[in-house]
């Protein structure tokens, strides 16, 4: 397998990474003046009705953007910086050291791959990545690399912290929806937690390539650490917003399941990663996933005459099949589950 991170810096972009003009980013509108929501999770006034203002901010951001960043979220800076560093170190290891992890077998709990695409076309993404199961830790830790030396310890700590933050956020979201605060605590969020550790080396011509094509995430909710290098863009109206890195912040976005459970109130929004010519970028996406046999449907508590269900009931594993068949296209995949 060819890894981008094993190559000496290319002078020009090899053919197989060059997207046809209609998939390139150059003509897209980038909405520089839109304020992407940043939510401070520390404190937060509680009003006379016991309503915490953070919940209001999350709901507002969630309805308008489907995306927001959180700061003062309680995860120590060191946990995040150690994790980003150990991931960078992994990709910097010699090719021979990494070769044992290469695999196309998605059933593996830990694998290294490069440049695969969602859309089954031949053009390859400008991205190397690790895809791993991170929780329950004791079930998967033996599949994690022993090098870099502290990889396992750092990943364990990061996993625990990020899962805790995900529970906190899901409780706030449930409250914001008027549901029991533990609504998402069971099968909706207790499938095996997965991580995508994305590594985008510098690219000689970012106008020709993509780190990740536009897609929506297929599960419940994603918590992304993106270090200090920008590259993530979220769809907004007729254009795209650059999600500017804030040191130690997490970018939160809703997956398809949260959109369906909220009957479309909280949208799963398309996003993509663009490349740059200057500096490598590493991002860590933690994916909170329902149990495979979890029953998904719009929450009954949210439905009424004015808000009839937009989606049918299904088992999460059926969704995953449809997602692959629809090549991750937002509208195509939702079409399978729409009621009309
Ligand atoms: C993902 C993803 C964005 C990024 O892994 O699903 O959208 O910035 N990553 O790397
Ligand atoms: Ni994504």
From TrEMBL:
Keywords: Iron, Metal-binding, Oxidoreductase. The keyword Oxidoreductase applies. Transmembrane segments: none annotated. This is 2-oxoglutarate (2OG) and Fe(II)-dependent oxygenase superfamily protein. The keyword Iron applies. GO terms for molecular function: metal ion binding; oxidoreductase activity. It comes from Rhynchospora pubera. Residues 191-290 form the Fe2OG dioxygenase domain. Belongs to the iron/ascorbate-dependent oxidoreductase family.
């Amino acid at each position: 397998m060819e890894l981008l991170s094993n190559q000496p810096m290319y002078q020009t972009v090899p053919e197989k990474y060059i997207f046809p003009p209609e998939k390139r980013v150059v003509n897209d509108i980038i909405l520089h003046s839109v304020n992407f929501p940043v939510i401070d999770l520390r404190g937060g006034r509680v009003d006379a009705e016991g309503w915490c203002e953070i919940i209001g901010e999350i709901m507002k951001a969630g309805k308008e953007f489907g995306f927001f960043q959180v700061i003062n979220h309680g995860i120590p800076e060191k946990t995040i910086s150690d994790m980003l560093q150990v991931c960078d170190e992994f990709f910097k290891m010699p090719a021979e050291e990494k070769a044992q992890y290469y695999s196309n077998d998605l059933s593996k709990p830990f694998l290294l791959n490069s440049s695969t695409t969602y859309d089954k076309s031949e053009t390859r993404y400008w991205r190397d990545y690790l895809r791993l199961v991170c929780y329950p830790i004791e079930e998967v830790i033996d599949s994690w690399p022993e090098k870099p030396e502290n990889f396992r310890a750092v990943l364990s700590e990061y996993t625990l912290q990020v899962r805790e933050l995900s529970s906190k956020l899901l409780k706030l979201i449930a409250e914001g929806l008027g549901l029991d605060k533990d609504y998402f605590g069971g099968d909706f969020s207790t499938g095996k937690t997965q991580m995508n550790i994305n590594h985008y080396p510098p690219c000689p011509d970012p106008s020709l390539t993509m780190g990740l094509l536009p897609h929506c995430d297929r599960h419940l909710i994603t918590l992304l650490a993106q270090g200090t290098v920008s590259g993530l863009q979220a769809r907004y109206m007729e254009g795209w917003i650059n999600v500017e890195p804030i040191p130690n912040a997490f970018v939160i976005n809703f997956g398809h399941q949260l959109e369906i459970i909220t009957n479309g109130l909280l949208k799963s929004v398309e996003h993509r990663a663009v490349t740059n010519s200057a500096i490598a970028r590493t991002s860590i996406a933690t994916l909170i996933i329902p149990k495979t046999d979890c029953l998904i449907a719009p929450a009954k508590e949210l439905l009424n005459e004015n808000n009839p269900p937009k989606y049918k009931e299904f088992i999460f594993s059926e969704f995953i099949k449809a997602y692959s068949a629809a090549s991750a296209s937002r509208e195509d995949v939702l079409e399978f589950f729409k009621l009309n």
